[in-house]
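Following up on my earlier message about heme C. Here are the inputs again, as you asked, copied directly from the submission form:
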Amino acid sequence: MNFLSKKLSLAFCVLSVSHAYGGDFQVNENSIIASKNNSQEWLSHGRTYDEQRFSELNQINAENIDRLGIKWFADLDSNRGHEATPIVSDGVMFTTGAWSVVYAHNALSGELLWKFDPKVPKEKAYFVCCDVVNRGVAIWEGKIFFGTLDGRLIALDAKSGSLIWEKMTVNDSKPYSITGAPRIIKDKVIIGNGGADFGVRGYVSAYDTENGEMAWRFYTVPGNPDEGFENSAMEMASKTWKGAEWWKYGGGGTVWDSMAYDSDLDLLYIGTGNASPWNYKIRSPGGGDNLFVSSIVALKPDTGQYVWHYQTTPGDNWDYTATQHIILADLTIKGESKKVLMQAPKNGFFYVIDRTNGELLSAEKYVQATWASHIDLETGRPVKTDLADYDDAEKLIFPGALGGHNWMPMSYNPKTGLVYIPAQELYMPMKKDDEYEYDDKGWNTAGDLTVMAPPKNLLQLMLLAKSIRGRLSAWDPVEQKEVWKQYLTLPWNGGTLSTNGNLVFQGTSEGELVAYDAATGERKWSKNLTNGIIAAPITYSIGEIQYVTVLVGYGGVFALQAGLPPKNSGGPINGRIVTFALDGDLSLPDRPRNIKMPKPPSPIEDQASVARGEDLYHWECHMCHGAGAVGGGVLADLRYMSEETHEKFNAITLGGLYTEKGMVGFASRLSEQDAKDIHSYLIQRANETYLFETVNSALK
Ligand code: HEC
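Thanks, got it. Here's what our run produced:
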């Protein structure tokens, strides 16, 4: 924060001390339920238990939005992805940054009140598919709860940030991780985990908020039948896995993000992830739906008892998680009032489900989807196309494994009746790994990752690049059709916020926060925040003033893997909390720009080494350093390595010299020759790029 903003915010504190922080954060079930009709605070991940992310506040509205400006901002400590939705209670904003660090700021001034670093071991970065991110905290009766990347659930004192209790929620010899925000229902904190791409068995657990004792655990996929089933739901599920010792692969179905709660029906809804490994024929060669992967499951929150399920992708083969944001609403469908649950999972269909019993009411494509033609309403099942299977040949599948929509929260505005989906148009090439064996130290997709190397044919490359973009879609869930859309240059844009000011807010991968007219989609306002935005904005009010806050900080799986740096990317920049209000007048410091590309080492003559290096690079490195060695704007672009880095290449790659930066050593996976071949490939890519840049700047 700069000096002026500090002074301004001090003045604000004095003026509004009576509404400022200093409460005792006594949030409970009643306060969260009451916040449905009182939008001043933001008390739960999706604001309310129905997770609509709609606020009644309308001081900032479509008429005066051009007056919106930055009121305060606060820098965080990491340049990795920032995905959290902050919680605001009693004038304090609680959020997580990257590496599961928790921050409490004065919500009026941005002053840092306390910070808690759970000291996640940096080696953990290797065992997460999608960056060292965290999606936020939960608050309950004076305590703050959050999960850590290495699988702990932690309770802190909300006033001081001091540790109250800490529980390991996973078997830490397995590649589990936590990135999702906990939800709290009736003194139980509910948390899931991730890791299905590495081969784990998914589950969700509930812990007592007072002392951290586990109250229940619900597994989402069956374990080894010889060890007996935990409950009748698992016994039922086991009949849908066939023909292999599937439990040895973990099974997947991890509950890594979405949950919602209906306090009248007393049902907790969870979304489950993809299967482990991705490839269905390897996992369950005898067929079967593989319950409960890629499903929505309703549970009793007191006991974790199974009530119903709906599986969006039976026999998942494409990493089609159903962990995407779940919204509960009451809709009038064909003249009848229905209690529904809505989801736009990765597989490209928008589902409206009767949340009392799990019955499918309707499902339509919200983006292009080639794997299925439609969902049969009689059976509730997708009707697959010839393009779905990739057993014999490589296929381009729409949506790709990153989904038509990923974890970025949607929002529902009951006034417009529209759901605002941060959708994206993305394919993925898929090919079976014929030599697949379970790897207890690495990825377990059973897919051939070398297909991620960009095509050499320029025309093909351009066509593919053209078919990738973002799309903010305003969806009518009753009619099951898009009412308006806005295309965005890149996929991987932020979650959405709807307000009663007839506005929808969304941050973009390119680094702008944008406000649209909620009814028409007209672009009303935008602000460049100098770094990609993937988190969802929130809004709250203190005193008479409405604020809008968003976490800025590019990252997550697309940013690491797909190698399409946003136009705002420059030198590394840390995550930031940015808060807006009418007549806010601060500006952000300029972002350091990329330095000139250093001259790479001489081109490599040994083309066999380059070719081998390209394959190895896509097996081992591209998920963090970008397909084709094009950095996505977050981690080092390995074409731009300096002379010293080239010298230290083996020490970094094999020896783990940069472990503290989150770059593990690969000595247990790669030989010296492997490292040499990868290096050859990178030098080749650097030379190609250097030539391009030299010609490009000569032409300027
Ligand atoms: C789990 C993510 C991850 C994977 C997988 C990964 N890296 Fe890294 N790498 C990092 C991080 C984090 C850094 C340090 C931060 C930065 O430089 O942006 C880094 C830095 C590096 C650097 C230093 C670059 C520089 O210019 O300073 C080299 C070299 C490197 N990695 C090589 C590799 C190679 C080769 C592979 C594959 C064998 C690989 N990395 C796989 C995360 C990863």
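One observation from looking it over: Residues 125-126, 620-621, 623-625, 635-636, 638, 641, 645, 649, 652-653, 658, 661-663, 666, 678 surround heme C (CB under 6 Å). Hope that helps, and feel free to reply on this thread.
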